[in-house]
Amino acid sequence: MNIPLLDLKAQYATIKDEIDAAVADVFASQYFINGPKVAELEKAVAAYSQCAHACGVSSGSDALLIALMVEGIGAGDEVITTPYTFFATAGAIARVGATPVFVDIDPVTYNIDPEKIPAAITDRTRAIIPVHLYGQMADMTPILDLVKSVNLQRETKNKKPIHLIEDAAQAIGAEYKGHRAGSLGDYGCFSFFPSKNLGGAGDGGMVTCQDKDKAEKLQIFRSHGSRPKYFHKWIGGNFRLDALQAAVLRVKLNHLDAWTAKRQHNAARYNRLFAASGLEIAFTADVDWASYDRPQVVLPSAVQDRHIYNQYVIRVQNRDGLRAFLKDNGIGNEVYYPVSLHMQECFSYLGYGEGDLPQSEQAAQETVALPVYPELNDAMAEQVIEKVKAFLVEQKI
């Protein structure tokens, strides 16, 4: 049987009546921009994410962009982030005119390595953007402590602070020491792209925060910086969330925890099947990453409180060969991400070279995501593992 990487039709079939009714309600109201549906979703996402405020925006990319814009970050400023992430993270930094500064990843979680951040901070650093990749939060305590310490020093010198912006595009509902993604930084940025755990019927995003003044400014900036109408103190953008998307997402939010539990179940089942496969396996937390000695398969480690498994990512040495084999056998898979951002052509002006950020570069060469969506059943999961094993045994990897 063919097994897709993600089956949104299967999801829709379970909530079709709810979705159709919500969409019909929006059409009946003819209220498509902002309005009560968006406000209702904002309130619900804020509560779900343990935040005081939330502002619906047009995409996860624009969520990052507006957070930087609200803080006036731009030309001459530096923003520290990870090179192992979707392009939008660094793209937003460059779009406001600031300079991305890349810090290598922790190979256990694929998130930014907190120990490497202090060396990257300069007087020009205005923000740090940790990415909660694949559904697991970054190690936030040392990052929070670092930002607090630096900002205390800057306050005594009357210098601008460093802002902490969480890229939580893949992590809604993930937790770190009891705190939800998006609740620990100055801002939390979420994506509702259709393939996300909470996905809309098109583009959409959300910015969360705890500060009332920041929340009000977000609302202003998403509508061209206008308040009152036609009066502009700031230059914002057209970052509004459609009411249709808000209505769809509000329905789906009610099901999110059940879907997350199924993803976690599927990840645990994969782990059991791999353990029983006879393959040489290890978890990322158990690998000696300073050496080049690898088992046949490296499985993801859930080291934080709540991993929501936006993706289930394994590592193999002949990743591209495995991908081709799985495709030929009808099994969906994907690489997130094949080129580390510091090696992208558009960022060549930053001066990075091959070998500068080795953990990120190696992950880009070895990782592949397997289907983990909630509707994946036992037979499907068994077939996925069977085909992975068949390739690795045949290739003697």
Automatic annotation (TrEMBL):
GO BP annotations, alphabetical order: polysaccharide biosynthetic process
GO molecular function, one term: transaminase activity
Domain of life: Bacteria
N6-(pyridoxal phosphate)lysine: residues bearing it: K196
List of catalytic residues: K196 (proton acceptor)
Pfam families the UniProt entry points to: DegT_DnrJ_EryC1
UniProt keyword Protein biosynthesis present: no
Keyword entries, A-Z: Pyridoxal phosphate
Entry annotated with the keyword Phosphoprotein: no
InterPro entries with a match to the protein in the record: DegT/StrS_aminotransferase, PyrdxlP-dep_Trfase, PyrdxlP-dep_Trfase_major, PyrdxlP-dep_Trfase_small
The family this protein is said to belong to: Belongs to the DegT/DnrJ/EryC1 family.
Protein name as it appears in the record: Pleiotrophic regulatory protein DegT
UniProt source species: Desulfoplanes formicivorans
